[in-house]
Amino acid sequence: MSTDSNPDGGRRQVRLLIVDDSNIVRRRIERSQRLGEIEVVGTASNGIEALELARRTDPDLVTMDLTMPQMDGIECISRLIELKPSMRILVISALADKATAVQAMEQGANGFLHKPFTDRQLNDAIAELIS
Amino acid sequence: MQLSGTDRNRRFLAAGAAVAVVAVMALVLIAGFRLATRIRASVSALQTTSVLQTYPAVISQQLAALRGQLDTLEYSGRVHGELAATVADFNKDFATIERRHDLDPAAIHRAQTLWRSYQPALAPVLAFSGEPYDDTDTGSSLSSSGRVYYDQVRRAAIFAAENATVLHRQLAILSASLQARTSAAAARLRTLLFVGVLTVLALAMAALYLQLARGRHERAAREAQEQTRDILKTVREGFFLLDADYRIGSVWSEALTRLFGRSDFAGLDFEELLRNKVSPETLATAVKYIKLLWGERARESLMKSINPLGQLEVSMDNGRGGRESRYLQFDFHRVMGPKGVKHVLCAVGDITSNVLLARELQEAQENAHSQLDMMVGMLHADPLQVSTFLDSASAGLKHVNTILKEPARTDAEFRKKLAGLSRELHSIKGEASALNLMSIAQRVHHLEDMVGELKGKSELTGNDFLPVVLKLDELLAHLRGVREMTARLVTLKDGSPEPGATMSVPQLRVVPTEQPGAPSATERPARAAGDLATMLQQLAAKLAQDHGKRITLTLSGLAEVPDAYLATVKDCVIQMLRNAAVHGIEPSEARRATAKPEVGEVRVDFHRSEKGYELLFQDDGAGLSPEALKRAAVRKNILTGEEAAALDNRAALALIFRPGFSTREEVSMDAGRGVGMDVIARAVYALGGKIGVSTNPGRFTRFKIALPEARQAPAVA
Questions:
Q1: What DSSP element (H or E) covers B563?
Q2: Residue B325 included in any domain
């Protein structure tokens, strides 16, 4: 995947990193972003992998699952924000309790999307985050 | 916000008007003072010019007098002195006129020139000193200097006489111009005063108007304040503002008092408001959320979606010494100022009734849903089956009622009651599931749960059975409803061309009998057997689906079942089928692994035998393990360890016919209750029959039920 293509001339594409332990969800998000101004720069299935990828690919936007093996989403969010404070993070989680959402926001997340979601909900949430 | 803005403007206007009044008055006063000073100077100058005008004539007269005195040789010293004084006065006064800048310089110059032209004539006269006469005091003649003096006086007198009028006129012109200027200045002063007074008046009126407007505005503000107070007093929601320190502002709605049972809100910390009303975890989350509201990062819509206080269960004093649970809804709206979030507006509502209503609604919906499910199930089921089931279920429940009514005192008697209840309920549930009447099956399941709980109690009393009785009543009411619905559905089906269905239900005997194909009474057993086969196939399909297994059911000879045995055979096959589906037949993967066909097979065969009839039931499932059965029996306290060890395989297999035996830990709708096979065995014994089981672990389980020759049909529920 090319990382520096600028098809719309001059303006840098939004670089998206997808973090989710479910292969299906990862593919689903990736597929929904194939067109448009988002460029998927990587996918990770746990927090540690996500951090490593984030260091290498310098994403602007991260979709973040919360319950993952090894390093959970909440910790990963705070580490990502430490790495790059301007990073926008959209939490995508099936956890319904508001306390987790509040905790994620407290760590630096910028948006929250509940699973299951429609492509439209996903695109709206991303559009709101990068606008 | 807008209110205070216009208020500020008005204040600025009033202050501006006051400043303007002072400034205008000061200007008018200064200008007036300067004008008055100038007028005063003009007036004194005017006096001077008036005096000056008289001098030419005086000088002429004095020169003439001097000449006369010299003519008559009189003493001329005094007049000479007076002339000198007059000339000196003239010079002095004229000098003051010359210094004035407001007079026409040309006119002054002309007067100057005229006056200077006097000088050659006057100067020698004034310069003369000494005595003009010779001799003595009586005098006789002019001395030589006296004659010169006389000539000079004469010439000066002639000059003065000739020019006095001209000089006088010139001075009069100056005086007139000065007069005109003075009166012009006076007019200006008058105008200035007039304008000044008018301006001050106008400004004073403006100030008055502003003052009135301010009063009006203050009244409006007071009214607005009152209205706000009224709104806050009456509104049902609790409203307050939170400041950046998460403290409640000084304005809040009265409803808060009712919602939180306190009234010291002003300055109260938000955390303090909820403390002891919610769990510490919820409180911590709420506080974090409030802090997030102040951040710029989160959008309002997002914050709304993650609001952890959207439906908050709080525990409150109920005013009677106890505590009660209420549901509060907190809504937060950020109030933006020029420097970001200024306040957070918080609206609290009591949504307890909404929450309870929503629950009721959900229950009602579930109920309706289950009713609908049931109707759909009934549409698929044969009305005869349903009707038969309803009859037997009613009879069964009546039996349950009888069991409940039986007098009991000892714990053992109560426990016997419970065992009886369990068996009866289990069999009703089995049939309901088989017919897909899930609403009934679930209710019976619930009843079974209650009975199960009672079994677990250490001591039992009659009161413990009350809830069971209530639940039983509810179930009976439900059964009545189902019966009604069946009748209606049958009426609907009546129009269908299926003849058997219409006539098979007793209530429908009113249907015209001349209908073609109406069955005769002799057709009934065959139909019933056909119904049984259909019902068993449906049950098998349903059980297979529920337990994720694949089963084919092969039935044969059911048409041979005599009427008298129909109910028992049905019960037996249902129970065994259920056991086969839950315990016997393995999941497809397990079967594949042991090289068995993926689809499990259950065969039911009913046939005549030498001594009567025989019912064979066989599944090709995992079979029964005598050791597992023994372990279960020990675990259930049916046997002690030694007793179990002493059992041979045959006796171990017979354990399944013991009351209360089950090898399955979890309880499902279909098995695991530990009643079932014992009921079957009793039913078979009651008919004078025998039941036996054989198994080959991993290969099959086979039940063989032998029944004697059927006598006249006994009453079967």
A1: helix B563-579
A2: yes
Query: Chain B partners of A85 at a C-beta cutoff of 8 Å?
Result: none
Cα A30 to Cα B357: distance, rounded to the nearest angstrom: 42
**Residue of B281, B298, B310 lying closest to A105 (CB–CB):** B298
DSSP assignments along B390-450, one per residue: HHHHHHHHHHHHHHHHS---SHHHHHHHHHHHHHHHHHHHHHHHHTT-HHHHHHHHHHHHH
Angle at B454 between CA B448 and CA B457, to 5 degrees: 150
| Residues B123-150 pLDDT 10s | 888 888 878 887 755 556 788 888 888 8
Give the nearest partner residue to B281 out of A99, A106, A110, using CB atoms: A99
Distances (CA, A) of B342 to B227, B229, B244, B249, B334: 24, 22, 7, 12, 8
Residue pLDDT, tens place only, B26-70: 988 899 899 899 888 888 888 988 888 899 999 999 999 989 988
Does B112 contact chain A (CB < 8 Å)? no
Residue B230 lies in a domain: no
Q: Which domain holds residue B149?
A: 2-212
Helix (H, G, I), strand (E, B) or coil at B687: coil
pTM of this structure: 0.46
CA distance B156 to B366: 144
pLDDT band at A7 (very low <50, low <70, confident <90, very high): very low
Choice between B371 and A9, residue whose per-residue pLDDT is larger? B371
CA end-to-end span of chain B, whole Å? 82
CATH number, residue B268? 3.30.450.20
Residue B251 confidence (pLDDT) above 60: yes
Q: What is the CATH number of domain A14-130?
A: 3.40.50.2300
B316/A contact by beta carbon, under 8 A: no
Total domain count for chain B? 4
Task: Give yes or no: residues B154 and B86 share one domain.
Answer: yes
